[in-house]
Amino acid sequence: MKTKNTIGHLSALLTIIIWGTTFISTKILLNDFQPVEILFLRFLIGLLALFVVYPHRLKGTTPKQEGILAAAGLCGICMYYLLENIALTYTMASNVGVIISAAPFFTAILCHLFLKEEERLGANFLIGFVVAMAGIILISFNGSRMELNPMGDVLAVLAAFVWACYSILTRKISSFGYHTILTTRRVFFYGLLFMIPMLFLLDFKLDISRLLRPVPLMNMIYLGLGASALCFVTWNFAVRTLGAVKTSVYIYMVPVITVVTSVLVLRETITFMAVVGIVFTLAGLFLSERKLFVTVQNSIS
Questions:
Q1: Which of 8, 1, 2, 3 is nearest to 236 (CA)?
Q2: Contact 234, 170 (CB under 8 A)
Q3: pLDDT confidence of 92, banded at 50, 70, 90?
Q4: Which key words tag this protein in UniProt (predicted)?
Q5: Which residues lie closer than 8 Å to 267 by C-beta, 6 or more apart?
Q6: What distance in Å separates the CA atoms of residue 53 and residue 287, rounded to the nearest whole number?
Q7: Containing H/E element for 84?
Q8: Do residues 149 and 91 make contact, with C-beta atoms less than 8 angstroms apart?
Q9: CA 91 to chain centre
Q10: How far apart are CA 285 and CA 128, in angstroms?
Q11: How far apart are the C-alpha atoms of 126 and 119, rounded to whole Å?
Q12: Which tens digits make up the pLDDT trace of 49-87?
């Protein structure tokens, strides 16, 4: 059990490391693609990849289970990413980054209300949330002037809440006992299905020639195979193993990974305030879930 928990923590960490670096690929692809085009193509690639990796059918599901899988696809694949992308058109990316990072708090509240098997919220989690959010604000705004835009900020809050709903649904799906790849693939299918109507509203163009160039192709493959196919499987496995609250706490690390990656890859300058923000964020992560560090340490030693 201890080894399985360690694998769960490592799976969550791997997922966050990859998700924290996807902004580079997305930024590059935005030169040639609309946000909805990137979103649809990456999950289509992810769906096809999961078919190749595990070519088996998901059998024996009940109508209620299919409804939960569909709801997960609507929340985690379609609504979350669309809300996030639309929010970015109304407000600053820093605002969206800070608000989205509140998803673990929403997840903890929903788990406390609806999942009785999850651990009760303690003072450490709440203190850790406050410290981590302070760090994320320092990283995201980095001393710049904060600007509030009601439309964009509300959409970002909705995106964070929708991701929390997805985490709850994923925890419920894990209790079905099906293979993680099979359920993830079904969630992808429903997410793409719900996304189709939005393609006609958000200027989607089916122009595959844009992927004939190496740079767009490699970045789309990275998003499709890495950030979608691999990461959603590892994230869902982590939720299944650790629970929604413990896994969602790793989201605090996304801004940290983003800053470090921007320095290493884009050669951006890291400021003193960003360093302080990283320290605060990691401290908040430690306070929120000290047991995960003890678990990993005991497993290694």
A1: 8
A2: no
A3: low
A4: Membrane, Transmembrane, Transmembrane helix
A5: none
A6: 38
A7: helix 80-88
A8: yes
A9: 20
A10: 6
A11: 13
A12: 999 999 999 999 999 999 999 999 999 999 998 888 778
Overall residue count recorded for the chain in this entry? 301
Contact between residue 12 and residue 240 where contact means Cβ atoms under 8 Å apart: no
Tokens of residue 128, six digits = 């850790």
Cβ-based burial of 69 (10 A; exposed 0-12, middle 13-18, buried ≥19): buried
In angstroms, the CA 147 to CA 49 distance is: 41
Contact yes or no for 254/269 (Cβ under 8 A): no
- For the chain, the domains span 2-300
Contacts of 192 (CB under 8 A, 6+ apart): 40, 43, 44, 47, 73, 77
Residues 6+ apart with CB under 8 A from 196: none
Residue type, 107: T
Output 120 or 61, whichever has higher pLDDT.
61
Helix, strand, coil content of the chain in percent (nearest 5): 80, 0, 20
Residues whose CB is less than 8 angstroms from the CB of residue 289 and which lie 6 or more positions away in sequence, other chains included = 124, 125, 128, 246, 249
Alpha carbon distance 257, 139 (integer Å): 11
pTM of the complete model: 0.80
Task: Kindly report, residue by residue over 141-197, the tens digit of the pLDDT.
Answer: 665 555 556 677 788 888 889 999 998 999 899 889 999 999 999 999 999 999 998
Query: Cβ of 65: how many Cβ atoms within 10 Å?
Result: 18
How many CB atoms within 10 Å of residue 27? 11
CA–CA distance, 43 with 223 (Å, rounded to integer): 8
